[in-house]
Amino acid sequence: EYLLSRDFNNAPVNTIRPLYNASGAQNIVRFVTSFTAPATGDPARCTTPAPTSADQGGCRIINGVPITFINLNSTTATNFSAPITVALAAVQNLRPDPTRTQLEQLASIGNSQYHGLILELRRRYRKLGYGFGASFRAAYTLSSLKDDGIVNTSSAQIAGDFRSEFSRALQDRRHRFVFSGAMETPNWLGKLRFSPIVRVASAAPFNLSGGGFDRNLDDVNNDRPNFNGDFSLIRTRNAGEPFPQDVFNALTRPTIGSRGGNLPRNSGIGPGLFLFDLSVSREFKFTERIKLRPNVEFNNVLNATVFSFGTAFINATDPQTTFLVPNRTYRPREIRLGLRLDF
Question: Which sign does the torsion angle of CA 208, 212, 213, 219 carry?
């Protein structure tokens, strides 16, 4: 509202224009929410229509006075392009100390909230007959984890307003199931000990960024986009699947200088989790005190491709080939050999 309420003086001071110093910049800067460049031959057309991108703005002659127009709804604006840099310069004098940019206050004020129900079934080791023996543990967890930041250096989209950041944490998975156990074979099968661990979990969330651009002019590039659609449709997709055009069209960048996008933090629904690990060992007992146990550990036995977003932070402006497609995975299959000697 402040940017749209007045014209700003951009006349040179010691040959340097204070707001917009590019070639073709005029003595007056006016912020608008849309801009159409004058056609060739139009008397309102300037000789040098800076910015050169009509989406970002341009020059118009109004009552004989050339004015540089800056479009606050530019979709191509970056942190180094005219719309954001000129807007930042225009509001610089509103800072408590105009000679500084961002000042950070580091404080232990984060909040998190966990609710969980754990159902567990155990069976202690017992002989099964024919030389076999086994034990197992199966656990199911129904839980909810919410917080208002990732680490103690997290910044809210609206400076200081962590209450509006309170949402699902990146580690939140509503359903988790873990099965682990041990099974020993008889001598005629090598007296081997198998210890599997199976982990299955539902989807974790991910955060959607507005492209990493500081459109709310608070010096932090964590702005989120606006979204006008069904939030449940913001979910991961596999490479090659049809492009979710309706979701993409529902995402728009907020007006430069506004409070930021309306999309809540961590509103995307990411991929699920499945991991199967296995350890195989055998104990050789030489005396009551000397034992040797070689073992082989298989991490991700099936070499399953378990996707993640890595940082769980993707851009709403990604190209169609990568939009909502995770490109990182958890660990591949690993085989580790070990030898333990007790004496």
Answer: positive
